[in-house]
Design brief:
The protein is mainly alpha-helical and 329 residues long. The protein has one domain (2-165, 184-192, 235-300). 64% of the residues lie in helices and 0% in strands. It has helices spanning 2-21, 24-36, 46-56, 68-88, 102-122, 150-165, 167-180, 185-195, 202-218, 243-268, 280-300, 306-326. The N and C termini lie far apart (45 Å). The mean pLDDT is 83. It comes from Methanobacterium spitsbergense. GO terms for molecular function: oxidoreductase activity. Keywords: Membrane, Oxidoreductase, Transmembrane, Transmembrane helix.
Length: 329
């Protein structure tokens, strides 16, 4: 009976997460950014509900790619990696100790990140048309010039994000680890049930700030949106995805918002997502607060160039390291 209850709790939590996550992009765009920028903005259901439904019914186009099946499968792999993160932070799965650790969370987050690099490197088209640059029509050929595609530039930016930009989030994840002296999620949660939430300490406050900056970077939101540039129509490596595969992209973004908020409540408040506990309301509240704060920062922020992005990430990472040091004082 206990196993059945656990299964119901896991499935129910996943359903709640999906129902909440589809509204988060709309809340971010409609209720915050649009109001700050004094414009009407899209309907609240547009980004997370209507857009995926629209793309699911569009005609699927075979991409120009050396590995088209893998290219189309990447958004699905990204979604499954994010779902896996939510699964392992649920208390019902803490019996699988080796899989429910901070190391597993970092590994799955890295999979989600590296997908962007694969997206860029496997795309060989521009708006679904095979069109190498520079053009090779008569009179337009440039000798000894290497041809490239816009998405290849996106993959280079994705590599920079993986190699450097995600440092703040991963450093912040280890603040609760250092304080609880456990890499296992069950140990981190148990420590906070005894000693109180990590968030209510100096190290926890600094770690939460660093986590939130990392949250924005991982979601590629302004001012840290180095994956999105004017050159490739603000979409970066996602530009060439169409039909149902683009729908997965929209669903994954909203779901990632909820999962990162759940990860925060688990690590910094000791409250893992659990349908059978009223604490699930805390997880939902944080999932709503984070996009609102992100939208406020994005609305008032410039677009960072690399000269601004690197020093900011370095400074935030140093704050995260200080937070870890404070846990030993």
């Amino acid at each position: 009976m206990t196993a059945i209850n656990s299964l119901i709790a896991v499935i129910g939590t996943l359903i709640v997460a999906l129902l909440v996550s589809v509204w988060l992009p709309g809340i971010e765009r409609k209720f915050v950014q649009a109001r700050i920028q004094q414009r009407v903005g899209p309907p609240i259901s547009s980004a997370g509900i209507m857009a995926p439904i629209k793309f699911f019914f569009k005609e699927t186009i075979k991409p120009h790619s050396p590995m088209p099946k893998l290219y189309n499968a990447l958004p699905i792999i990204s979604f499954l990696s994010v779902v896996s993160i939510l699964l392992i932070i649920m208390p019902q799965l803490y019996v699988f100790a080796a899989l429910t650790s901070i190391i597993a969370v970092v590994g799955l987050l890295k999979i989600e990140e590296v997908i962007y690099m694969f997206m860029g490197s496997l795309s060989k088209s521009v708006m679904s048309l095979k069109m190498p640059f520079p053009d090779v029509v008569k009179g337009a050929k440039h000798p000894d010039t290497q041809r490239s595609f816009l998405e290849e530039l996106s993959s280079l930016r994705a590599f920079r994000l993986i190699a450097f930009g995600s440092f703040p989030l991963y450093i912040a994840l280890f603040v609760p680890v250092a304080m609880s002296k456990s890499i296992y999620l069950s140990g981190i949660v148990s420590y906070q049930h005894i000693h109180g939430p990590v968030l209510f300490t100096l190290a926890g406050i600094l770690g939460a700030i660093v986590f939130f900056i990392g949250y924005m970077i991982l979601l590629n939101e302004y001012p840290f949106a180095i994956l999105k540039t004017k050159a490739d129509v603000i979409e970066g490596p996602l530009m060439e995805y169409a039909a149902k595969y683009r729908a997965y992209v929209y669903v994954t973004r909203g779901f990632l918002m909820f999962v990162l908020a759940s990860l925060f409540t688990t690590l910094f408040l000791g409250i893992p997502p659990n349908l059978f506990s009223w604490n699930i309301l805390v997880t939902i509240a944080v999932a709503l607060i984070f996009p609102i704060l992100m939208a406020v920062m994005s609305a008032f922020s410039p677009i960072f160039t690399y000269k601004q992005f690197y020093p900011t990430v370095a400074g935030v990472s140093i704050i995260g390291i200080l937070a870890i040091i404070f846990t030993f004082l």
